Sequence to fold (255 residues):
Amino acid sequence: MEGRYHSIESFGNVDGPGTRMVLFLQGCPLRCLYCHNADTWLMKDGKIITVDEVITRFEKNAAFYRKGGITVSGGEPLVQIDFLIELFTKMKAKGIHTCIDTSGIVFQPGNQRQAEKLETLLAVTDLLLIDIKHIDSDKCLKLTGKPNEEMLAFIRFVDNHRVPFWIRQVLVPGLSDDEQDLYLLGKFIGDLNYAQVLEVLPYHRMGANKWDMMGMEYPLEDVEEPSKELVARSKQLIFKGIADRQAERRVSKAT
Ligand code: SF4
Fold:
């Protein structure tokens, strides 16, 4: 089967555990204001690769991936779910650790056919890295072009299927650093059972040049990167929300 991809990073160290091959698939329905991969948005701009070609490239460096594996990122990888299912099915059969980096935006609650495909994919997926773009739906719309209901429903779907995941949020000063929102984000996470890791990723301007190259005005021109103190404070607020929600759950279980 063929997929459309943007690029391959042979030795990634930030997209899941260990050293990993990171395949960036093409196509994304979101338009995050801070996007550092704006050149992955349009499917037509991608290059063609087959499942077997991905596996051959992986196997060339397999010795380096013993404590890692493969991560498929994007763009939004779930746009090409059939490709992912075939790729991960073949890779799992070889004992390779598989990971998806997604926002879950393609999720359609109530779509049974899609739910079945996702179940097939989750059965061959070891880990997901899930971006919560914003816990407030109106602010999510402003930040990404879409509200957050489907994305949050996707996280609950993964949690219900008992597949471990890491939660990531990009911290953008003035857009996603409101203290109450961060606390509520923690409360949402505290309701989940299979969230393993929380990563607060400081917004950076590294993708701005791609917007320029594509002839688009970079929307966050005046936004500063967050300080270490702001990142630390934001994490504390999220962890407080998680702890409070977990305490509430313990109380309601005991009564
Ligand atoms: S989900 Fe990722 S690739 Fe898509 S617009 Fe947002 S940052 Fe860019």
Residues 2-254 form a domain with the TIM Barrel fold (CATH 3.20.20.70). Strands lie at 2-12, 20-25, 47-50, 69-73, 98-102, 127-131, 165-171, 195-202. Helices lie at 51-60, 81-93, 112-122, 137-144, 149-160, 179-190, 208-213, 228-254. The two ends are 53 Å apart (CA to CA).
